[in-house]
């Protein structure tokens, strides 16, 4: 076993964190019990680039007990929980290469360490691992992979369309039990958690600008409104912009919203959606945060160019004095605010996402050689099973169709 973590002495603390997460992830624990008995991943090497959090720890522990040999690196330089990384290495024999505060060179070096072991399954969050394997032409041993987030799915779809994707990938992000819950409820809560931990500002009465109205943006906007904020949505897609209007939000282009907002949160998956030109228009004291996967949504280099000084004024809060005399505050270096300044999604919502991950990995192994190199959605039976198990764990009983009702839904002759 190999590992490279910040401080192995943190392992006991990390073990407690993992136990807490397991208590709040009953669906995945139910799946773990089944997989541990059957060992469907025996002999399989898994390379995973995921946020190294307590919830991810529960997932990789599950894969290990299903028989896999697991190599884990971080999908963001600031998202690793060092105590969890230490616990996984010490108590679970997970090959972990991750610590909080990695440089860009260390980030890619750790990824290269895990791909040296000829993985058969590749799990990714953001697409960097998939891209690295293809760039280095190291895909020969790969049976297939999974992708956790919207940004990564977009990249993989581009690879598929350009004919360069070498193995099948299941887009876990596209599962109903992922995007409707993780993206909306998970990021909706955890992004605001990160902003509040970094700033401790009052949300009530603030003008908050949410840039992007996908499932992440929807969740953030909803929770901001629930906290008493006045919410403006910036959206380039006409359908989503219309939906935001019908939900009661004000919809504006960024050039106008820039002058009005107190807090800005990006959630687009695109580059420079807040530019230096926008920043120069902002109010004195404006707060900038990013909830998208990569640190490209806010033009941080542009911000530096139009600033005459900067300093860290609070943990994860950097004050920039602009050339026009105003001050703006960038949170978590423009990286994922929910993971850099807080703990990421609550365990209860990751229970759904990572149950999909575990079952998708097993599905790929069981269907090796039968899936072509393309991006697949999570099989419907997996999605529905995860939902069923989650309801059971919550003690909720849903309605069941009668035989007459099932037959009615399969016929076409009878209407009124």
From TrEMBL:
Pfam families registered for this protein in UniProt: AdoHcyase, AdoHcyase_NAD
Catalytic reactions on record: S-adenosyl-L-homocysteine + H2O = L-homocysteine + adenosine
Cofactors that this protein relies on: NAD(+)
Record pathway: Amino-acid biosynthesis; L-homocysteine biosynthesis; L-homocysteine from S-adenosyl-L-homocysteine: step 1/1
Annotated EC: 3.13.2.1
InterPro entries assigned: Adenosylhomocyst_ase-like_sf, Adenosylhomocysteinase-like, Ado_hCys_hydrolase_NAD-bd, NAD(P)-bd_dom_sf, S-Ado-L-homoCys_hydrolase_CS
Its biological purpose: May play a key role in the regulation of the intracellular concentration of adenosylhomocysteine.
UniProt protein name: Adenosylhomocysteinase
Organism: Metallosphaera yellowstonensis MK1
């Amino acid at each position: 076993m190999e590992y490279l973590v910040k401080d192995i002495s943190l392992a006991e603390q990390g073990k407690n964190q993992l136990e807490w997460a397991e208590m709040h992830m009953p669906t995945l624990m139910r799946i773990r019990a089944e997989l541990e008995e059957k060992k469907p991943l025996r002999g399989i090497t898994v390379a995973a680039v995921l946020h190294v959090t307590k919830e991810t720890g529960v997932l990789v522990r599950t894969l290990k007990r299903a028989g896999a040999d697991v190599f884990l690196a971080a999908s963001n330089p600031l998202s690793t929980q060092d105590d969890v990384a230490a616990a996984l290495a010490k108590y679970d024999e997970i090959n972990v290469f991750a610590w909080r505060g990695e440089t860009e060179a260390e980030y890619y070096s750790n990824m290269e360490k895990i791909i040296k072991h000829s993985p058969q399954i590749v799990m990714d969050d953001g697409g960097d691992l998939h891209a690295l394997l293809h760039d280095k032409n190291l895909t020969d041993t790969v049976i297939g992979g999974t992708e956790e987030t919207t940004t990564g799915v977009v990249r993989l779809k581009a690879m598929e369309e350009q004919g360069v994707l070498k193995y099948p990938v299941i887009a876990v992000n596209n599962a109903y039990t992922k995007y409707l819950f993780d993206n909306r409820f998970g990021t909706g809560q955890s992004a605001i958690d990160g902003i509040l931990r970094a700033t401790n500002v009052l949300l009530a009465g603030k003008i908050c600008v949410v840039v992007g109205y996908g499932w992440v943006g929807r969740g953030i906007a909803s929770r901001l409104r629930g906290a008493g904020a006045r919410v403006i949505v910036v959206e380039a897609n006409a359908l989503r912009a219309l939906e935001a209007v019908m939900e009661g939000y004000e919809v504006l282009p960024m050039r106008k919203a820039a002058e009005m907002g107190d807090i800005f949160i990006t959630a687009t998956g695109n580059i420079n959606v807040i530019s230096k030109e926008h920043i120069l228009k902002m109010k004195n004291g404006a707060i900038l945060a990013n909830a998208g996967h990569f640190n490209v949504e806010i033009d941080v280099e542009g911000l530096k160019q139009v600033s005459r000084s900067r300093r860290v004024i609070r943990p994860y809060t950097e004050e920039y004095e602009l050339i026009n005399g105003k001050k703006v505050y960038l949170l978590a270096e423009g990286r994922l605010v929910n993971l850099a300044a807080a703990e990421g999604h609550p365990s209860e919502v990751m229970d759904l996402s990572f149950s999909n991950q575990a079952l998708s990995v097993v599905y790929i192994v069981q269907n090796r050689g039968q899936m072509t190199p393309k991006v697949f959605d999570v099989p419907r039976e997996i999605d529905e099973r995860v939902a069923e198990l989650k309801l059971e764990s919550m003690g909720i009983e849903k309605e069941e169709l009668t035989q007459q009702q099932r037959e009615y839904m399969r016929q076409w002759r009878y209407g009124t």
